[in-house]
Design goal:
Elements lengths: L2 H21 L8 H18 L5 H26 L19 E2 L5 E2 L11 E4 L2 E4 L8
Antiparallel strand pairs: 1-2, 3-4
């Protein structure tokens, strides 16, 4: 086995690790390891293709690398600028009374749906648990 074959196989292994990591929940799309593997994989295969050229594979690798670089640029752009409408990082905002926050920390005027605690009812010497729950909407 010569150098272009070894480097090409390293590229294939990078692709497979990135894909498996994403599918198994080990990586996220914004994980540096995932992005690095998706740049290294086509880079290694492009090196191999310079010795054994295949047009379809070359186009695939170039597009894969370009899309990964575009995604990386998007992530860097989002990290540099604050989200639209968000207060400066030095201010602390407190939601008004009666306003809850959703998962992202954005105030919501919709009341929270808290479950009522189960009520214990005694009947004929046995303890029964009422399963009725009330929801506030």
């Amino acid at each position: 086995m010569n150098l272009p074959d070894v480097v090409g196989l390293i590229g294939v292994i990078c692709y497979q690790i990135a894909y498996a990591g994403l599918q198994l929940g080990r990586f996220s799309q914004r994980d540096a390891r995932y992005i690095g593997l998706n740049i290294l994989g086509p880079g290694c295969l492009l090196f191999s293709l310079f010795f054994y050229f295949n047009l379809a594979s070359f186009v695939t690798q170039v597009l894969w690398m370009c899309l990964t670089i575009l995604g990386l640029a998007k992530i860097w752009g989002e990290r540099r600028k604050p989200a639209a409408g968000s207060p400066p990082s030095t201010l602390v905002t407190v939601p008004a009374a009666g306003v809850s926050e959703n998962i992202r920390g954005v105030p919501s005027t919709r009341p929270s749906r808290k479950r009522a605690k189960r009520k214990t009812v005694r009947s004929r010497g046995r303890r029964q648990i009422s399963t009725a729950r009330s929801h506030t909407r």
